[in-house]
Design goal:
This protein is α/β, with parallel strands linked by helices. Helices cover about 40% and strands about 20% of the residues. Strands 6-5-7-4-8 form a five-stranded parallel beta sheet, with helices on both faces. Strands 9-10-13-11-12 form a five-stranded mixed beta sheet. Strands 1-3-2 form a three-stranded antiparallel beta sheet, with no helix packed on it. The longest helix is centred in the last third of the chain and has 22 residues. The N and C termini lie far apart (about 105 Å).
Length: about 350
């Protein structure tokens, strides 16, 4: 049986399938989507088999069909930094699946955690643990495999490798040795949280995890508190109370903030409010799951400095009212952000003769 639908339309069957979307039904039936573009609309066609089983084998067969129909050639040797889901296992690209299935080995931060993802997509590439406690010991052996022409994929527990996760040093080593480093883009907790935060997105600073040392941590927070860009932190749940206390004194209680946790998972949650409200909300309870914490940037006061002609007019008006030149400079400087030295130079240039008379009289 074959059917076609227009983009943005859902399909339901009147025979006990009213709650199942067409795309879901296609996945359950091992269907492979084929897109056809016409001048009027974009059409999606599915071919359904009579088998209604689903699960990891479904995703594997869908991937296999894509791979067989792909016109891309074999992968080149090198280090592939592969982005993986931050929660929902369906948030992975076809390209990422292709790399993971084609690699000679997959470096994994936690092999048990990553094993669930590979099992879900029936990927049987060997896993090798690679984390902050063994990356130094593993580097030379991995480098040797890369120099021998192998395809090495690196993944973290969630998101992009090397971003607050192992991988940075290995990538730097490969670059130094002229070994190809290929990024395979994927989910990111930073961008995911920022996009849905409701805070300004035109400029932001990703701080990540703060230093453990209190002095270094305070120094970093003081820098962030004075930046106009949105600030993004990774905060362990058990350190949230301490974090809120520290930012309250440096950022101010009224600064807007967003706490994002369990993103893309069943219990995804975005809490929004001020820093003071966050302290009240989480003083008695500790939220579960990984936390991405965003704080709005410091408000920038727009100060339009007066032009030189405007400063001259202000000086002239005060002098005409009997103010001495030095007093006029002082009064004008008090009402603007322009440096007093600059205003005094203008005064000397425009009203220097009067200053000379004052000196003669005195």
């Amino acid at each position: 049986m074959a059917t076609s639908i227009s983009r943005a339309m859902s399909w339901s069957c009147c025979r006990r399938f009213s709650s199942i979307s067409l795309f879901d039904l296609a996945l359950r039936s091992f269907a492979m989507p084929h897109w056809t573009l016409s001048s009027a609309r974009l059409t999606l066609s599915f071919s359904f088999s009579s088998d209604t089983s689903h699960g990891s084998s479904t995703h594997s067969q869908l991937y296999t069909q894509h791979q067989e129909s792909s016109k891309q050639g074999p992968l080149l040797p090198g280090l592939y930094l592969v982005g993986t889901p931050i929660g929902n296992l369906e948030d992975i690209t076809l390209r990422a699946l292709r790399v993971l299935k084609s690699a000679n080995v997959i470096l994994s931060e936690d092999t048990r955690h990553s094993g669930k993802l590979l099992q879900y997509y029936d990927i049987r590439t060997p896993l090798l643990s690679y984390h902050k406690f063994n990356e130094t010991q593993r580097e030379q052996a991995i480098l040797k495999r890369l120099q021998d022409g192998e395809i090495v994929a690196l993944i973290s527990d969630a998101g992009m490798p090397g971003i607050s996760d192992p991988g940075t040093e290995l990538a730097k080593l490969c670059v130094k040795k002229s070994i190809s480093v290929i990024p395979i883009p994927g989910p990111s907790a930073v961008v995911t949280a920022l996009s849905a935060s409701g805070l300004p997105t035109d400029e932001f600073t990703f701080v990540g995890f703060l230093p453990k040392h209190s002095g270094s941590r305070k120094e970093r927070l003081m820098i962030s508190a004075n930046e106009s860009a949105t600030q993004i932190f990774f905060v362990p749940p058990h350190k949230l109370s301490q974090f809120l206390e520290e930012i309250s004194s440096l950022f101010g209680a009224s600064r807007r903030c967003v706490l994002a946790r369990e993103m893309t998972k069943v219990h995804e949650d975005f809490w929004r409010g001020t820093i003071e409200e966050a302290k009240e909300a989480f003083s008695a309870r500790q939220p579960k799951g990984e936390i991405t914490f965003l704080i709005e940037g410091k408000a920038v006061c727009v100060d339009e400095s007066p032009s030189e002609s405007e400063l001259e007019n202000d000086l002239k008006e005060l002098i005409s009212k009997g103010c001495a030149l030095s007093e006029a400079v002082k009064l004008v400087a008090a009402g603007t952000s322009v440096r007093r030295k600059t205003i005094y130079s203008i005064a000397l240039r425009k009203f220097g003769k009067q200053l000379e008379l004052e000196d003669d009289v005195s």
